[in-house]
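Propose amino acids for all 148 sites.
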């Protein structure tokens, strides 16, 4: 009498849903990733008082690049772009402030920048109708470096 040999079933990994899982992961990472609207390296001034800025705040950057003053602007959604000076910042800021008067603006300036230039930008923003302005700083006592 011959006995039937036990046939072992083949191990099969179901891969039908792998593409769905991959797309779900891609969507998850795209939605949760935070993008910087400005990556300009500046030496931020120190401060003991810290206030968190709102997500999507407009950004004004004052940066001294090799002795050349640079102004950059971002509406909080797109990457910052070079502008020619305070006049262009005034135009962009008034456009945003007209659409949303409570819109928050963040001024990002070098710590060794002459305060007259920062004051000029603050006056420009005030004349453009901006009422909510923050100055970007680094925690006092913390290592100063590139801010974002």
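Proposal:
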């Amino acid at each position: 009498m011959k006995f039937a040999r036990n046939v072992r079933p083949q191990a099969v990994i179901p891969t039908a849903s792998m593409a769905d899982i991959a797309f779900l992961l891609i969507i998850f990472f795209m939605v949760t990733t935070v993008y910087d609207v400005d990556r300009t390296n500046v030496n931020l001034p120190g401060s003991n008082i810290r206030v968190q800025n709102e997500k999507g705040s407009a950004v004004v950057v004052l940066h001294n690049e090799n002795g050349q003053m640079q102004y950059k602007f971002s509406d909080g959604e797109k990457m910052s772009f070079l502008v020619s000076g305070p006049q262009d910042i005034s135009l962009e800021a008034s456009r945003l402030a007209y659409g949303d008067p409570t819109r928050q603006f963040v001024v990002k300036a070098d710590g060794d920048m002459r305060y007259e230039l920062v004051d000029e930008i603050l006056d420009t923003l005030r004349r453009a109708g901006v009422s909510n302005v923050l100055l970007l700083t680094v925690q006092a006592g913390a290592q100063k470096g590139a801010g974002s």
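Confidence is low (pLDDT under 50) at residues 144-148. The domain at 46-139 is CATH 3.30.420.270 (Nucleotidyltransferase; domain 5).
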